[in-house]
Design brief:
The complex is a heterotrimer of chains A (297), B (467) and C (474). Chain A is mostly helical. Chain A contains 15 helices and two strands. With 474 residues, chain C is α+β, with helices and mostly antiparallel strands. Chain C has two domains: 191 residues, Jelly Rolls, CATH 2.60.120; 199 residues, MetI-like (MetI-like fold). In chain C, the strands form two sheets. In chain C, strands 3, 6, 8, 9, 10, 12, 13 and 14 form an eight-stranded antiparallel beta sheet that branches. In chain C, strands 1, 2, 4, 5, 7 and 11 form a six-stranded antiparallel beta sheet that branches. The longest helix of chain C has 37 residues. Chains in contact: A-B, A-C, B-C.
Chain lengths: 297, 467, 474
Amino acid sequence: MTANGFRKYWTCYLFLLPNGLLFLALTAVPVLCSFLLAFFDWGGKELDLATFGFAGLSNFAELARTLDFWYYLSNTLFLMLGIPVSIAIHLGVALLMNRKLKEIVLYRTVWFLPSVAGGVAILLLWQWIFYPDGGLLNTILAGVGVRGPAWLQSEMWAKPAFMLMGWWTHAGGMGMILYLAALQGIPQTYYDAASIDGASAWQAFWNITWPMVSPTTFFMFITGCIGGFQAGFMNAYVLTGGGPNGTTTTVSFYIYQQAYVNFRMGYASAIAWVLFVFVAALTVVNWRVAGRRVHYQ
Amino acid sequence: MNCAAWLKSHLGSLLAGGTLLVVLAVSGISKWETIRSGDSGPSSEARTVASVTVRVLLGGTQRQSTAWGQLLRVFERTHPDIDIEFVPTIPGQTYQAQVQTAMLGGHCADLMFFENEPFPNFAVDGAFLDLTPFIEREAYDLSDFFPVTLEEFTYDGRLYGLPQGGGPIVIFYNADLFEEFGVEYSDDWYWDDFVEAARRLTVDRNGDGRIDIYGYQGKREITHALIPVWSSGGSALSEDRRSWRFNTPTNLVAFTWWAELWTKHGIQAHPSASREGADAGLSIPFVEGWVAMEESGPYFAKYLRQHTKFRWAIGYHPKSPVTGKRVTRYYGDGYVAWAKTEHPEEVWELLKFLAGPVGMRMIARTSRSIPARISVARSSAFNRADTPWDESRLVDAMDWARRQPITEYFGEFDRICTKYIGRLFSFEGRSLFETMSPEEVLAAIDLELNAYAEGWWRRRDRANRER
Amino acid sequence: MRAGNRARKVMLDQAARLLLILGGVTMCIPFAWMVTTSLKDDRDLIQNMSRWMVTLPQRTAESTVGLDYIFFTTDAFSEVVAEDFESEDPGWRAEGAGAARSTLAEGLSAGRREAAQARANRGALAFTLRSSEGDTVTAGRIFEPPLAVPEWNGIHFWLDGDSSGSKLTLTVETDRGTFTTGRPWTVNFGDWRELSTTVREEDRLGGMPVLYGAGALGAPVDVPLSQPFGVEVRSIAFTLHRVPYPVALWERLTDNYRQVWESIPLGLYYWNTLLVASVVAVGQVATSSLAGYAFARLRFPGRDVIFYCYLATMMIPGHVTMIPRFIIINKAHLYDTFAALVIPGLSSTFGTFLMRQFFMTLPRELEDAAIIDGCNRLGVYARIMLPLSKPALATLGVMSFIGAWQMFLWALISTNSVSLRVLQVGLASMRGDLSGKYNLVMAGSIIALLPAVIIFASAQKAFKEGIVLTGLKG
C-alpha cells in the first residue's frame, strides 16, 4: 500500500483501532495459541517448555477414532434443530411486545426475567419441573391423564427437555429484544399504506415485516448456528452431568471435560478445531444461502 | 408542565436512577466496611515477629468454618514466626481448575487440601512437593496412620501428601423398618442372606400396586461395583497399573450379582426414579423412610442425626460366598504442598500440625469423616458417647477397606465405566441403546479402557524419553 | 374503512394482551417457586421439593428449648464436657416468669416424644417458657469449683427448639470476664441442630453466632490473639426470649436473606459487578459501533478478510482460549486486578457483527448527503449514524451488561482477592459453603437479579421510541 493510499485510509483504520487492538491481543492470539496447542500434549499445570510434548497429528487421529466424539456431535446437532423454532418464537413474541399497550413495560420485564435470572438458579428450577415423580410438568400431565416420561433421566426425552427449557428461558430474552429493536425501525407509513391498499394482517406481515427484519433474522440464524455448536455446557454441567448414558453431552461439555477434568489441553484444542471446521462450513453455507434473501436498504 | 406530569413521563429514568443510586450507596458502604474489617483470616492483626507467610488453600467451606479458623489460630500461636494467609477459593467442581490455573500463573498456594481422585494426575505432572525427604530426615512416624490413607497420597513409591481422613463405605439401615418386618440385621450375612432380607423389606405397604418401600439403595458407580468384586478376591487393575482386566470369571460373578440387585431382584428403585436430596449425594428416600438400607459414607451419619426420626444403625456389606470375606471401599482426602513453594520447611511444619493429633481431633469433631490417625479414630474424640450412632463400627470397617483403583486419568475412567454401567438398565420408552448383559459390559469396559490406557502410557513414555 | 381498521387493531391488541398475560403467568410460576424456596427452612428442603409449603412459626402457649449436651473445646481440641445432663440435676436452675425445667420428653410435643425418649433417658436439659410473648427465662449453671478449661476456644452444643420463633442467647463467665453472644439465635427448628461459637467475628458461617467479650460499655471487644480466651469457666447461662408473633414471623421469613447478606459481602460484590458491567457495556458499545461502522460502510484494503477473521474466532469454544488468554493476562502482570476482569470484555466480536449488520440496514442516502455537505467520516458517524442507532446500541449495551453481570469462569480464574469478586463467583462461594441448600441459593439469586431487572425495566424508554425516518421515502 502506498503512502498515499495509507493517508487515504487512515481514518478507516482509526475506526478499527480500539476494537482491533483488543481483538488481536485477547482473541486472535489465544485462538492461534489454541491452534498450535492442538499439535501438542500438555497438562496445563506449568508453562515450562519441557512439559509440551509434540504430538503431531495424533490428537486428531485419536479424535477420529473416538466414537464418543461423533456421538456427542450428533447430540449437538440434534439440539441445534431447535434454532428455527427459537427464532420463530422470538419474532412472534417481539410482534406481541411491539403493540402499544399501556402496561407493555411490565410484560417485557416479566418475560425478560428468566433469561437474566442467573443460570444456575434457573437450571435448578427446571430440574424441579422435570422431576419424574412430583415435578411440575409431570403433575400437570397427570392431571390431564398422561403419564409423563422421566425427562432428564430418560434417554429419549432429555434432549427435547433441554430444547423446551431453552425456548422458555429465552422467549423474552435478548433475541426478542433484537427483533423488537428491528421492528421499531419499520416506519409506520408502510403499514398505513398497506392497510389503505386493503392488505390483510398476514399479507402485511409477509410483505413488510418479514423482509424488513430479515437482516436480524439472518444475524440470529448465523449466530444461532455458531452458538449452537458451542452450546449445552451449562445444562450438562449443572443438571445431568452428561445425561443418562451420555445423551446430553455436547461437544462443548466434552471439551470442558478433556481440558479441565482430564487436563489434556492439547486434545481439547484438537476437538475445538475439528469443531471449527464444521462450524465454518455450516456458516459459509448459511451465509451464501440465506444471505441472498436478506433485504438490506 | 406541572410536576405530576413531569414525574410521570420520566418515571422510568427516575426509577432506574434511583435504583442505581440506592444500590451504589448500599454497596459502597458495605464495601468500605468489608475493606475496613479486612479480608482476614487468623492473621489480620499486625504481627511483629512474623517472618514467613504460608498461603493455605483449604477449600471455601473449610476456610470459613469455625473449626478450621480455631485450628489455624492455635498453629499461629505456637509458631509465632509463621503467618497463615487464607487464599480465597470457590469449592465445588471448579476447584481443580482453580488450582491448575493458579499453578500455571505461578501464584498457587503453598499448602492445599486435595481430593484423592485428581491427585495422581497432578502428582504425575510433578505439581506437588515430595515429602519423602522430610519424612526420612526426621524419621517422622507414619505408623499411626491407617495404611490405606497413606496409599491415597503415595505415587510411584513417594509420598506427596499427608492424609486428612475420609471413610469406608458402609450400609446404613433403618432399624425401625427392620423391626416392623421382622428382619434381623446380621454382620455375618452372605450375599444370598442379604438379598433375602432386602426382598422381605421391599413392600407395597398400602396395597395400591406400587412398591412403597425398597429394601436397598446402592450407588451405580464403578467404585461401588468393585466392592463385591474385591470381596470375591477379584481385582481390575494390573500390577503395573498399565492395563485393566475387568472381564475375568471371578469379577464377572461378583459384578453380575451386583447388577442383579437392580435388574433381577427388584429390591432397588429403577435409576430413572431416583431423586437426589437437597444436599448433593444424600438421599431423600432413606431419610423419609422409603428405603431400608443405603450404602454411604461417614458423612451420612451426621446428616441423618439432624433429619431423621427413626432409629438407624450402621451395618456392613455382606460377605462374599467365594472367599467368606468382605472388602469395602475407602475414600479420603488430604493435604499437599505445591512443588514450587518458597517455604518448604514452614509448609512441612504446618503439614505435620494439620496431620498431627491436634489437627486430627479437630477433624473428628466435625464428624464428617474418620480421622486418618488410628489413635484419634479410636479415641473418644471421634467415638463420642453423646452421638446416637456407634462410630467404632466405622473405624472397624477400616480393617477391610481398600482404596479404589486411582488412576492418572480418573476422569476418563469414570466416564467410560459410567457409560457402560448405564447400559445395564433399560430405560423407559424406546431406549436409544441396547441393554447389555453384565459380561458384555465388562468386556466393553476392558476394550475401551485398555485402548485409552495404552495411549496414555505411550504418551507418558514418550514424554519421559524426551525429557 | 378507518373504523374497521381501528376495530381490527383493538382486537389484535386484546389478543396480544391475552397471550402476553398467559405467557407471563407461565414465566411467573417458576419464579414463585424460587421465592417460596428462598423462604423455606432447612427442614422444608429435604421434604418433597415440589411442595410450596413454607414453615411458619406457630403461636404456641409454651415455648420449649432442649439442650442435649454442651462442651467446651480447647486449643488441643480435646473436649471438656461441661455437663452430662441428668434430669434431676440441681446444678441447673431456671429462672424467669413462667419458667419451668422439664425433662426433654415432657417439654416436647407428643409427636417428637418417641424420638426424644433416648435423649431424655440420657438426661438432656429442657427449659420451657409457659407464658406469653415478651417473656424471658434463663437456665443456667454455676460451676463450683469453676470448670477447668485450659485455653478454651469455643463452645459446642446440640440444640432443639420448636417452631415458636423464640430467641436464645448464651452468656459465659470466665476468669477473664463475661462473654455473651453478639446476636441471639432464632430457635425455630424442630430438629436437633449443632451450634458452636468462637471468639472471632470473621468466623461467621451464615447465622452462626459469635461470642464477643463484653467491654466496659457492653460493646463487643475482640479478644486479641496472643491472649488465651480463659482457663476456667465459672458459669454458663442460656436465656430464652419469647418474641411477639409478628417479629417471629418476620424473622423466620427473612432469615435466609439475612443469612446470605451476612455470610457473604454482597454489597461489595454488587459494587464490583456494577462497575465491571458498566465499563464493559460502555466499552463494548463504543468499540463495536466504531468497528461495525467501519466494516459496514467504509471501504479499505483487507476489510472483508479482517471481518471474516472476526467471525472465525467466534467459532472457537471459549474453554480452549481461556487458558492462553489467562497466560497473556498473567504475563502482562494484570492478574488479580480490575483490568483483568474488564479488558477481555471491552471488545466483542459478537457486538461488532451485530453493529455491522445493523449499519448495513441504514440507508446510504443519509450519509451521502452529509458527505456532500462536507462532513468527514467521523462526523457522519457521530452526527448521523449514532443517533439513528439508539435501539441497536441500547440492545448491545443491555446484552453486554447482562453478559458481564453473569460472568463466572473467567472471573474465577483471573482474580483471586475477595475485594475483586463479582456476584456470580460470590454466590458460588456461598453455594459451596452450604452445599446445596437451595433455600439460600435462591435467596442469593433473587438478591442478585433484582437490580438488573429494575434497571432493565427502566431502560425500556430506549425501546419505546421508534425511529422516525423523515424526508426519505414519500
